[in-house]
Amino acid sequence: MAFAAGNYRVLAVVLLVLSASFQVSVGAVYKVGDSAGWTTIGNVDYKQWAATKNFRVGDVILFVYNPQFHNVMQVTHTEYQACNASSPIATHTTGNDTITITTHGHHLFLCGVPGHCQSGQKVDINVIRTALAPTPSATPSPPPVQTPAPAPNAASPLYNSNRLVRDLGTAIAVAMNILCGFI
Ligand SMILES: *[C@@H]1O[C@H](CO)[C@@H](O)[C@H](O)[C@H]1NC(C)=O
Ligand SMILES: *[C@@H]1O[C@H](CO)[C@@H](O)[C@H](O)[C@H]1NC(C)=O
Ligand SMILES: [Cu+2]
């Protein structure tokens, strides 16, 4: 029995690691401004748009706009506050720009066309550091309590399937952790 139990333990650890890596590699896609896109028309409140999202590492931020009229510049906090487009960290100009978030913290974007940032065409993608799946350990703790999902309309990403796969990863991690405890 000891041999079989050991095998299960190895399997559990492997699955745990796999599901943990899933959480980083699979992301949701968020289109900035939703149907309005990246624009100065209609006074889109990008601060409000971002506030309804739960951004995570691995998510993809999609900027859709007419490249004749707009662009996307990633800037520092100081430049973001001042709407200063003179020395961006990165500039995107295709009109259909996808940016994958790879780190926690603030990711600040503005439109570099004069006057546009001042009129509100700027967005702060803030990825809050959250507790991920527990690391493999000999003394497993009880599984974390699932928080209720946010309102589907306001906060749902463009493609829900990715989120589903990732949540599946979390579920496997939790299940394996419990399994470890019983072997
Ligand atoms: C904009 O940023 C650049 C580089 O950081 C700086 O040299 C310049 O003074 C800034 N301009 C304004 C108007 O703040
Ligand atoms: C924009 O990019 C996305 C993802 O790369 C792609 O699926 C979509 O077809 C593109 N749309 C246009 C209009 O190019
Ligand atoms: Cu613009």
TrEMBL record:
Superkingdom classification of source: Eukaryota
Keywords from the named record: Glycoprotein, Metal-binding, Signal
Pro residues bias locations: 137-151
GO cellular component, one term: plasma membrane
Listed InterPro entries: Cupredoxin (IPR008972), Phytocyanin-like (IPR039391), Phytocyanin_dom (IPR003245)
Region annotation (Disordered) ranges: 134-154
Gene3D superfamilies: Cupredoxins - blue copper proteins
Signal peptide range: 1-27
Domain Phytocyanin, chain residue ranges per copy: 28-129
The keyword Nucleotide-binding appears for this protein: no
Gene Ontology MF terms in the entry: electron transfer activity; metal ion binding
Protein name (record): Mavicyanin isoform X1
